[in-house]
């Protein structure tokens, strides 16, 4: 910052007034004099006949400012903070390339009355702009909040879908494990059943084999018993045959053949002999018995 220029600006401050006209300024000297917009005691500022293209937003801090001369500059618009100059009573904006609405509100400042009207109408215009700006800001903030809500809703929806997908995945995994467990249990049960059947089959086969192949001592014992029984039956049969033969011999060869006991026996014997005559094996026996009778 040019120190001499700043001192020059300070020199132009006279109490509650400052005259910066014809100073070849392109902007309000807030850079050279940062405290310029905090000089709230100022009542009159003359910035006419410069090259100023814009005013700082902080100019609204000069709440006691009553007289502002901006004649013959290059202003097109005024800052929204201009509406805060509530004490402003006089304003000159002639010979500035103002935008149409602002120019219409400013009107002509050819006399004291018109300059006062200019101040009043421009303040009203700037207040409307401020209200519109605030509404626009509110709409923008509302839109941003709505977008943020939509974004949050989408995010929550996405998270909900992800949770649902994760839940479904876990359920499917659990179901898969359950089916695998059931399949394993079924396989084990089948194996156990097959094992049991094999054991029962082996047991039955062993039992059948045991029935077919008796132990040698038992077999010998059975054979011994059978042999004894057969021998006894054979002896009894031989005894019966000998007894019958003896009785027949007595009834055939002795005088007792005419006895009542021997008569039926002899008759049966004769019939038996006739039946056995066709047998080669017995012919010799019968011949011998016939020879004995004679």
UniProtKB/TrEMBL annotation:
Disordered: region residues: 145-215
Bias type Low complexity, positions: 182-193
Pfam families: LRR_8
Gene3D superfamilies for the chain: Ribonuclease Inhibitor
Keywords for the protein's UniProt record, in alphabetical order: Leucine-rich repeat, Membrane, Repeat, Transmembrane, Transmembrane helix
TM spans (from-to): 228-251
Repeat recorded as keyword: yes
Sequence ranges of Basic and acidic residues compositional bias: 145-181
PANTHER family from the UniProt entry: LEUCINE-RICH REPEAT-CONTAINING, LEUCINE-RICH REPEAT-CONTAINING PROTEIN 59
Organism: Danionella cerebrum
Taxonomy, superkingdom: Eukaryota
Protein name per UniProt: Leucine-rich repeat-containing protein 59
InterPro entries cross-referenced by the UniProt entry: Leu-rich_rpt (IPR001611), Leu-rich_rpt_typical-subtyp (IPR003591), LRR-SigEffector_domain (IPR050715), LRR_dom_sf (IPR032675)
């Amino acid at each position: 910052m040019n120190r001499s220029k700043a001192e020059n600006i300070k020199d132009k401050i006279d109490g509650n007034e400052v005259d910066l006209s014809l100073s070849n300024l392109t902007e309000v000297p807030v850079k050279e004099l940062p405290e310029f917009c905090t000089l709230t005691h100022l009542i009159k500022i003359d910035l006419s006949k410069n090259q100023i293209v814009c005013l700082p937003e902080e100019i609204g801090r000069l709440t006691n400012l009553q007289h502002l001369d901006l004649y013959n500059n290059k202003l097109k618009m005024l800052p929204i903070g201009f509406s805060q100059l509530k004490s402003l009573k006089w304003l000159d904006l002639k010979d500035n390339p103002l935008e149409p609405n602002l120019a219409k509100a400013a009107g002509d400042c050819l006399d004291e009355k018109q300059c006062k009207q200019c101040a009043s109408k421009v303040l009203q215009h700037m207040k409307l702009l401020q209200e519109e700006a605030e509404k626009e800001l509110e709409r923008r903030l509302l839109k941003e909040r709505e977008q943020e809500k939509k974004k949050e809703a989408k995010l929550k929806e996405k998270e909900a879908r992800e949770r649902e997908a994760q839940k479904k995945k876990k359920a499917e995994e659990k179901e898969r494990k359950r089916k695998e467990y059931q399949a394993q249990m079924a396989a084990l049960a089948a194996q156990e059943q097959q094992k049991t059947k094999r054991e029962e089959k082996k047991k039955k086969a062993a039992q059948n084999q045991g029935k077919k192949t008796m132990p040698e001592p038992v077999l010998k014992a059975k054979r011994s018993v059978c042999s004894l029984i057969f021998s006894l039956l054979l002896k009894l049969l031989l005894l019966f045959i000998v007894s019958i033969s003896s009785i027949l011999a007595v009834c055939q060869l002795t005088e007792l053949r005419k006895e009542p006991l021997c008569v039926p026996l002899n008759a049966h014997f004769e019939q038996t002999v006739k039946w056995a005559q066709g047998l080669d094996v017995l012919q010799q026996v019968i011949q011998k018995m016939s020879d004995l009778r004679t």
